[in-house]
Amino acid sequence: MTVTRRVAAFWVVLATTLGVGTLLLLPKVHAADVPSDFSLQVTPSPLVATIKPGQTSQLELKVRNAGTGTENLKIESRSFTFNSKNGQVRLQDITPPDISQWISFSVPKFTVQSGQWFSEQVKLSLPKDAGFSYSFALVISRQSEPKPTAGGRLIKGSVAVFTLVNVDRPGATRKLAVAQFSSTKHLYEYLPATLNVTLKNSGNSIVQPFGNVFIQRGSNSKTPIATLNVNDSHGYILPDTQRTLSTEWKDGFWVYQTTTAADGAPHQHLQWNWNKLSTFRIGKYTAKLVAVYNDGQRDVPIEGEVTFWVFPWRAFIILIVAIVGLWWLQHWRHKRKTEKAVQRALAAARKKEPGQDAS
């Protein structure tokens, strides 16, 4: 039996009156502390394993109480749905029917003192006819409902740990393809340029891609201008779903910076760095995607390409207007100088005409 686990410690506190909302399959999940001081640290997240059918595997999940009081907790498995179009995850208040008979916990209800760790053993006993992959969430919450706050609100705290299981059996396939590789704009006035990579998993197993986007002057350029990482968060893609991964190119002399205003609205302002004058970006660029995923036997490359332009058109309009203005001013000055010279010449010529001296 082979079990692969990726450990990535994270802080998670989800406060909501209806359920738990989070991002799909990220190794780190963050949420703000709730007023009731519910704060847990859980590792690993996500919980990832490869298991052979017909065997029992035991996975360890560690929970730390980072709050100030003792917590009486419980752990339960929950289904979730993932929307490939908008990337939203929705947790459901039901146990996944396909794994309900196969999963058990060493201590379904447990108590953790403030600052202490607790190790939960998650047992998975897959039958011989198990499928190729399973994905569900392990939700850790309080055993009993908290009392309403002074304002009359009832706040629940929960932590969701996404669990991804690949089944090592004949017929398991991992197949990833680039569904779309695009830039958010065809023409950028200034950086950053945002590039979106949409990958589709048409296999029956969970896949984790890695790769880079190379910014080049042309498709056949040998030396890239910049190298961007794809899937820095080490996210996974579930079978028969697609996921969009974004990366930004923002290394330039002129770059838009996004800040948050007092009312919470995002605001962009242009910044320039004279130390990066050599990175003045203008013209046509090519972005080349080179990513890989493991199909169970080897790393398989996947590629894509997109072109876009960077052209500070407003700055060039101002420059052209300034050049035309200077040319017109120079032309006007030259014209005035010529007119004055002609007038002086005519005046001198009139003085020399016959009869002018006699008069």
Task: Describe the secondary structure blueprint for this structure.
Elements: E1 10-12, E2 14-16, E3 40-43, E4 47-51, E5 56-65, E6 71-78, E7 80-82, E8 89-91, E9 103-105, E10 109-112, E11 117-125, E12 133-142, E13 156-167, E14 176-183, E15 187-188, E16 193-201, E17 210-216, E18 226-230, E19 241-249, E20 254-260, E21 266-272, E22 283-294, E23 299-310, H1 313-351
Parallel strand pairs: 4-13, 15-23
Antiparallel strand pairs: 1-3, 2-13, 3-5, 5-11, 6-10, 6-12, 7-8, 9-11, 12-13, 14-16, 16-19, 17-18, 17-22, 20-21, 22-23
Give a summary of the structure in a few sentences.
By secondary structure, the chain is mainly beta.
Query: Average pLDDT value?
Result: 85
Structural class determined from secondary elements: mainly beta
Number of helices: 1
CATH homologous superfamily title of the largest domain? Immunoglobulins
In the predicted model, the low-confidence regions spanning at least 5 consecutive residues are 1-35
Proportion of beta-strand residues: 35-45%
Number of strands: 23
Order of helices and strands: EEEEEEEEEEEEEEEEEEEEEEEH
Helical content class: 10-25%
Task: Specify Rg, calculated over alpha carbons.
Answer: 33 Å
Q: Mind telling me which CATH architecture of the largest domain this is? A: Sandwich
* CATH fold descriptor of the largest domain: Immunoglobulin-like
Main pleated sheet: 6 strands, mixed
CATH class of the largest domain: Mainly Beta
Shape: elongated
